Amino acid sequence: MQYRRLGNSGLKVSEIGLGSWLTYGTAAERDAADKCIRAAFDNGINFFDTANAYNRGAGEEAMGAALKPYSRSSYVLSTKVFFAMGDDVNERGLSRKHIMEQCDASLRRLGVDYIDIYFCHRYDDTVPVEETLRALDDLTAQGKILYSAVSEWSAAQIGQAVEIGRRLNLRPQIANQPIYNMFERYIEREVIPLSEREGLGQVVFSPLAQGVLTGKYKPGQPIPAGTRASDSSVNFVINSYMNDEVLGVVAQLEELAGSLDLKLSQLALAWILRQPNVSSAIIGATRPQQIAENVKAVGVKLEDAVLAEIDRLLGQVAHFAPLR
């Protein structure tokens, strides 16, 4: 395993992280969390990501229980706040009230004394940014969180937070957690350049496009039983990739990976890690074997000719054409 600094902070995270969205506490049993986290530690992963909204706290509970046997100093733990955690009007968003209450609730569910990275899960245009940033700064001063960060904020929203934080002399955000994979590249245009200037690192989710970039789904063939795409309770994101045009390109990418003696998942992760502003790619896993396969992407260097061929293949899908 290799490790990268998270933005301009001194915190170092593994290039591959392990998340719990749509896995622990939802689509998989908790014993899968125990096995996968054990495999993660065995393979050098030190970064674990969850959120309060993942199955209304069940994701945090499963992650916390699985991490309990390990020394708290041996791992970096992140969670998030924004989405509704109840029916009351104040049980959502980025108000001071919701942030403070949910941070305490997350600490209880996780069974820890502090959270390493606390993400604003989305931008809240109903709350003054100053209120949100002051709440995060106070949580840091109290020692409940060590660093604050954002998730899926636009470049303009990140820039606004940076300017306000600087004016108010608040501790800066150190990371952004966006979707990023071969088919979802919007952050390359504005988010990454701004983040590089302002000292935020990317910890990206869905690096394998919900499993599409493992090659398990084939063009012209039925969706395999037992996969995420076959589960109507969790396939609301993956459906955007499930057409023969996209899967045809995936098949060609798999051939390219084979020519490099790589699995498609390893090629996809190595492609993400080519970006120096990416600190970690967060994978999901329900089996330890998936982790062992994915970590082999670490240290893989893709030649310029390979990167150009990947762009050519992706350009065949108009909706997901590479940025120019």
Number of helices: 10
Provide the β-strand percentage band.
5-15%
The main sheet orders its strands as 7-6-5-4-3-10-9-8
Which shape, going by the Cα principal axes? globular
Q: At the third CATH level, what is the topology name?
A: TIM Barrel
**End-to-end CA span:** 32 Å
Category by helix and strand content: alpha/beta
Low-confidence stretches: none
CATH superfamily: NADP-dependent oxidoreductase domain
How many beta-strand segments? 10
Tell me about the largest β-sheet.
8 strands, parallel
What is the element string, with H for helices and E for strands?
EEEHEHEHEHEHEHEHHEHH
Overall pLDDT score: 92
Structure description:
The protein is of the alpha/beta class and 324 residues long. It has helices at 30-42, 58-67, 96-110, 129-141, 155-167, 191-198, 244-259, 264-273, 288-294, 304-314; strands at 3-5, 12-14, 16-19, 47-49, 76-81, 115-120, 145-150, 175-176, 201-205, 278-283. The chain has a single domain (3-320), classed as NADP-dependent oxidoreductase domain (TIM Barrel, Alpha-Beta Barrel). The strands form 2 sheets. Strands 7-6-5-4-3-10-9-8 form an 8-stranded parallel beta sheet.
